[in-house]
Structures are given as C-alpha cells and as structure tokens.
C-alpha cells in the first residue's frame, strides 16, 4: 500500500514537512560519499528555513504540554497500563525539557557560521559550488568521510530536540486514527467531518491499481479524486470505482 497524508491545518503541515526533512537528513548522513554529504548539508539548510521560526518552537511546546495533561489524567484508569503511561509521560517530559532548554533561534549556529553561510548562498545557484567558486568547500569534501560526517552531525545537533518532539507528536496523532475501508464511487469520494476536530487524513491505495489520490479539504469537509497518469505523466481523472483505506486522526 502507498500511504498519502493530508494535513488540515498549517501547524500539522509544518510538522509533516519537518518530519520529511529530518528523515531525508538522517538517511543521507549515514552515507560516506561527498555527494551524499553535500545533499545532507542542503537538507540541513532547508531545516534552518523550515524550523527556525520562534513561533514554531512555541507551538511544539504547547502540543507537548497538552498531551502531557491529557495522559496524566489517565492515571488510575484500570484499562491503562501504568508502566506504558509512565514511559510515555517520561518521553513527553524529556522532549519538552530538551526543546525548552534551547536558547535563541534554532539553527542560529548555522547562520552564524561564515563557511556554511557561503555554501548556503551558493547552493541556490546552478553549479554554484564548483571548486573555483568554493575552494574551501572543495577541500572539505576531500577530507576523511568520518570527519565530514562528524562535522555535519555537530552542526545538526541543535535540531535533535525538535526532531524528537515532532516525531513523538506525529506518532501520537497517527495512533488516534482508525483505518477504514472506503470506495471512491466513480473515482470520487467526499465526507463531512463532525465538529471539525480532525487534523490529519491518511489515505492508502494498492499500487497495483495504478491510481493516485488528489486530496483536498479542511477541518469540515474532505474530497478525494482518483487520478491516473497518462503517457506524458499528466494526471487524468478516472471514473472507476476505486477501493482505498482511510484514517482520520485528531
């Protein structure tokens, strides 16, 4: 099954983008070649742009505190494992403390580094990181692979509390969804959302069917149109009845 996720508000949209960038960075930073190191750094620059807002840190802390209060209220509930609850509360507290202790703008260490700033300014120019443009970067790429990876990890460490917090929040959100089997009649599906309480929609489709969902909606209504790519890669609406799985998360 191919999973597609659609956020219903700007905060969850930002969390999904951050999660995507963190996963890409972690995958690239496991590799040793200079080209993989290069794209790990460009991903790190994207994280500076996406995660450096001061209001984002505040939003994450509020969500962590909200979950902590919700789960604390479950103490003494006979249907809840006290051990599992304690572990989750400890994880929430650890993420809150780690992110809350971060001083200043997250990623400021990267913005203050002249060497990284020069590279960041050049990566947006086609071919702008050639050896004659950035000889110091060219020399760095010829260092030992372990030294390069250690440098990248050192620069990225400031994002670890945010990474852990976003991963935990998205995991808790996804756990609230119950997967249901649906059918897009004539290639279309729509549904009203009660009370506008949902924050994330998850759609899973069997790849062998060859359909791609075009999802739109908000907190009150959702639409799914099933599309199929033509020979030029353009999406065309189909009129087949298409089975899929859906989960709505709060």
Topology, number of strands: 8
CATH architecture of the largest domain: Orthogonal Bundle
Could you name the CATH homologous superfamily of the largest domain? Answer: YacF-like
Structural class: alpha+beta
The biggest beta sheet reads:
4 strands, antiparallel
* Beta-strand residue percentage: 15-25%
Overall 3D shape: globular
CATH class of the largest domain: Mainly Alpha
Rounded mean pLDDT score? 94
User: What is the CATH third-level topology name of the largest domain?
Assistant: YacF-like
User: What is the total domain count?
Assistant: 2
- Could you state the order of secondary-structure elements as H and E? EHHHHHHHHHEEEEEEE
Helix content: 40-55%
How many alpha or pi helices?
9
Spatial order of the strands forming the largest sheet: 1-4-8-2
Pick out the low-confidence regions: none
Oligomer: single chain
Distance between the termini: 22 Å
Tell me what you see in this structure.
This protein has 250 residues and is an alpha+beta fold. 49% of the residues lie in helices and 19% in strands. It folds into 2 domains: 10-172, YacF-like, CATH 1.10.3900; 177-249, YacF-like domains (YacF-like, Sandwich), CATH 2.60.440. It contains 9 helices and 8 strands. The chain has a 4-stranded antiparallel sheet. Strands 3, 5, 6 and 7 form a 4-stranded antiparallel sheet that branches. A hairpin with a 3-residue loop joins strand 5 and strand 6 (221-229). Helix 3 runs antiparallel to helix 4 (82-100) and helix 3 (54-72) packs across helix 9. The longest helix is centred in the N-terminal third of the chain and has 19 residues, at 10-28. The chain is globular. The mean pLDDT is 94.
